Each structure stands twice: as structure tokens, then as C-alpha cells.
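Intended use. Records like the one below are meant for learning the mapping from a protein sequence to its folded structure. Do not use them to infer anything beyond what is encoded.
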Amino acid sequence: MTRRVARVTWLALALLLLAGCAAERPVPQNPKDAGQSLRTQLRALRAWRADGRLVVKADGQGTPASFTWTERPDDTFRLRLSGPWGQGAARLAGGPGQASLVTGDGTRYVARDAHALLAGAYGWDIPVSALRHWLLGLPGEEDAQFTLDRYGRLATLDWHGWHVEYRRYRQVNGLDLPAVLTAKARKRQAEVRVAIDNWHLDGRGEQPAATESPIPLMGN
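Structure written out for the chain above:
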């Protein structure tokens, strides 16, 4: 009886392994070409929205928030931030040469740069203009240095002292989009950890991300 149970157990495990192998995504023969094709498709997106969670670390202190980042066809964006249980909601809006921030108490600030607004109001020294591209899995600036994974997706990225690592992707409407990424400033105590829970592309509806993140947002 024991041997029979053992055989059934090993058979079940073997079937699971075979199923996993059968479902494994094929690896492209040329990841560089696959990556170029993916980035071309991502740049063609005229509008998108990402809902998720982030932690911004500055001087060793971490600030968690939920966020909704919306990109519009006119090259403007909207970022809504809210603390735990919806407290302290803030709204950041920006576009070419202009930005505005409305804090949780209703105070409104205006500047030419979104980075300056977040740095002044919250002490967050993060490159907002670059983050717009990083969230989508794009290198952004031409002088960014990056590596690809075996599927042609961004694996790491370095730009002006920032190091970005892509920890997890998922497919949305046939496109590989980031699910978890981290960005660290090498010479400053600044870090951003992002987990994206839902993607909305060009009005095509909600695409939920996986329910579990592979890294804790508040971890080291």
C-alpha cells in the first residue's frame, strides 16, 4: 500500500512538472530584436493607466502610498497618491514645461518641473520625467544604459546615478509590462519600490496583475 501511494505521488509530481514545461513561454531566438519590437509597441501607446503601491525612501525613512498614474495622449500625466487607508491624498499633474501639485490639505503648488514639486513638498528626490518611462518598461532618455532578459525585456537600467531593476513582468493584451521594479540612487539615500496591481491600456479595460509581489515593498 505504501509503495502504491509512493508511485501515485511521484506520478502526480511528474505530471505537474510536465505541465509546467508545456506551459513555459518560448524564448525568442534573438532577445535584442524581440526587445526592440516590444519597445516600439510600448512607445506607440497613446494613453495608459497604472494602479499600484509604492514606497519612497529618503534618508533611511520609507513612505508607503497607493498610486494611480495616468498618461494622456497630449503628453501630460496625472499622478494620484494616497497614504494608508486613503489618508493624505495628493494629486500631481505635469506636462512639457509645467507641473502642479495639490496636497492632502488642499494647498496648491505650481512649478515648471514635477520633480521640484515632490522634492519641495515631501522631500522625494525622484526623477519623475524618467519614471514615466520606467513604469512602462522603457529606458526613456537616449543616454540610459540597460540590459535585457532572455525575452528582450528590460532587466536593469542605469541613468544619471539611478539604477533600476525589473523584478517581475506580466503580459497585458500581448505586451510584457512591469509588475515590480525598484529604482535606487547610487550616491544618495533615495529609493523607489513599485508594485503595479492593474494596467489599463488605451482604454482597453482593466488587466489585473498577480496578487503577490516577489519582493516586500518595505524590505531591505
